[in-house]
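> example.struct
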């Protein structure tokens, strides 16, 4: 088990920053106290119950999994939490954009997995350094519940060849899987207790197994970037400025939702989803684009 990181006044120290850049990940990092994380999980599950059959244009799971911060205020609030941003700033610097937020849920006793992959393969930014994922556990993330597994220092590779499996048990949009065999001994389990966070680089090779525990594995995955990176495949891209300034104009900045699933936020969601699909589903088989495009 990895040692819990001790923050200095809520921030990473030089050694922790160096270890992130050496290994491509850093965890576990304490963020939310037990009472807070219980409240966050309760609020999330109350939202699920309230909106599951409430006439949304798309299935609720789509909104949870793709750009939740566009339509769910809680998702944006967690992503914009100053405590999270203080940690992220140690890696990305003072100018921070929220590019995407998703609720990643594995139900208990199910076979859903995430195959070993690199995030940046399909995001349209190329092999950039200035993007990371902050992954915050709202329930225990353990080997039994299907926690993430990292291949240390694999972020030093370029974007490697992937194959689209379209496996029904794969939680990724295309079942994308890296065409490299990853030995079990090369995998580091990112075990997190509720309220703890991991950071990982966009080129990190990672995945996760099924949830064979008796509890839901619930996490909030937030993708942060700096304004300097730019979309290379789609004609436009969107982000929310979380801290600092955006002086580049590489992203269309938008405001977070005022309430869950407003007509205004649903329209913006469709606009963003359509634009980003040009990158996320680039090269996919035409009859397989329904999940995202």
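> example.seq
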């Amino acid at each position: 088990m990895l040692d819990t990181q001790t923050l200095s006044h809520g921030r990473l120290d030089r050694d922790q920053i160096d270890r992130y850049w050496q290994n491509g990940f850093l965890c576990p990092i304490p963020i939310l106290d037990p009472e807070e994380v219980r409240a966050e999980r309760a609020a999330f599950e109350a939202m699920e119950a309230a909106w599951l059959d409430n006439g949304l244009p798309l299935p609720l799971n789509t909104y949870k999994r793709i750009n939740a911060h566009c339509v769910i205020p809680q998702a944006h609030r967690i992503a914009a939490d100053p405590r999270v941003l203080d940690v992220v700033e140690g890696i990305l610097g003072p100018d921070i954009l929220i590019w995407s937020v998703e609720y990643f849920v594995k139900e208990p006793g199910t076979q859903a997995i995430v195959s070993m992959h690199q995030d940046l393969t399909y995001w349209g930014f190329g092999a950039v350094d200035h993007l990371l994922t902050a992954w915050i556990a709202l329930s225990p993330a353990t080997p039994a519940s299907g926690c993430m597994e990292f291949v240390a220092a694999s972020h030093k590779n370029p974007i490697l060849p992937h194959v689209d499996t379209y496996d029904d048990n794969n939680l990724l949009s295309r079942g994308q899987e890296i065409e490299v065999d990853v030995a079990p001994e090369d995998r580091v389990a990112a075990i997190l207790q509720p309220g703890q966070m991991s950071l990982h680089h966009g080129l990190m090779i990672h995945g996760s197994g099924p949830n064979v525990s008796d509890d839901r594995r619930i996490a909030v995955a937030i993708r942060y970037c700096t304004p300097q990176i730019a979309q290379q495949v789609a004609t436009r891209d969107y982000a929310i400025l979380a801290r600092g300034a955006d002086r580049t104009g590489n992203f269309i900045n938008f405001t977070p939702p005022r309430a869950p699933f407003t007509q205004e936020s649903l329209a913006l969601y469709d606009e963003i989803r359509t634009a980003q699909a040009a990158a996320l589903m680039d090269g996919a088989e035409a009859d397989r684009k329904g999940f995202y495009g």
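> remarks
The longest strand covers residues 96-106.
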